[in-house]
Amino acid sequence: MAKKSPKKSPKKSPKDNPAREAPARVSDLLRLPGGPVDLSALDPRGTPGAPGDRAVTEAGSLATAPHLAELQERLYAEGIGGGRRRVVLLLQGMDTSGKDGTTRHIASQVNPQGIAITSFKAPTRAERRHDFLWRVRRAVPVAGSLGIFNRSQYEDVLIVRVHNLVPQAEWETRYERINAFEAELVDDGVHLVKVFLHISKEEQRQRLLERLQDPAKYWKYNPGDVAERGFWDAYQQAYAVALERCSTQSAPWYVVPADRKWYRNWAVGRLLLDGLEDLGPQYPPADFDVTAERERVQGS
């Protein structure tokens, strides 16, 4: 009697293996978890989720740029077609953390026609006559646009807090007012990508020195930045409180290690890409008879 061959086990697909899961998105890796925030526990030189070393990661940025540009074009077209959704990329960080560099990197990958960049510097005399959120409301992009905020409403719980520019009783109320403002934006179709560029004090020192070693960078150097280094710990505490109190379900904070510029640029680009993929903007359908219009063009 012939022996029966052993029964082969059916091949398991990767989905059947509980130990094997889809790789986490960058937005999941960098999203700030709930609870107290300790910035000293977060590595400014880290590279969470990076596909490899500098060369590989920069190549990754170039590879995803067309997809980012297409999604931004869809969002813009959606706005032209009557949609109300838009995106705000909000960048905060200490001096030299790369807000300008990140803005240039993102702007170089999308259609400039569909973006609006706003740099919030010290408020003007006219702006000081209004509520602290007034100038931010005016900068919210129109439907279909990508807005980039270089600094933001958070300056009013950061530098204002560190330098006691207004009484504590006033700036303490601003966290909840910011949360209410951002909830209002989200309800109005704004997708917020709030990014804290986390740089180390030593890396900031090196970048300031680089500006002093190159005449082409003198214009970027501000002697006041050195004085502000004396308030480093106070700023770290102010940021920690702002991140903790203003990271909500609909408008979370993302902490991007910023000591490595190549990683910073890649990570922010991926956060924006994740946000646009979540939105899934679509080209609006034609509001005319396509066949008839084709015949009209051919006969013209």
Notable features of this structure?
300 residues; alpha/beta; Rossmann fold; five-stranded parallel β-sheet; 45% helix; 11% strand; disordered N terminus
User: Percent of residues in helical segments?
Assistant: 40-55%
Shape: globular
CATH classification class: Alpha Beta
Span between termini: 85 Å
In the CATH hierarchy, the architecture is 3-Layer(aba) Sandwich
What's the structural domain tally? 1
The major beta sheet can be summarized as: 5 strands, parallel
Low-confidence stretches: 1-22
> In CATH, what is the homologous superfamily?
P-loop containing nucleotide triphosphate hydrolases
Q: What's the total helix number?
A: 13
Pairing-aware structural class of the strands and helices?
Answer: alpha/beta
Radius of gyration: 24 Å
Report strand %. Answer: 5-15%
According to DSSP, the number of beta strands is 5
N-to-C SSE series?
A: HHEHEHHEHHHEHHHEHH
Going across the major beta sheet, what is the strand order? 2-3-1-4-5
Average pLDDT score: 92
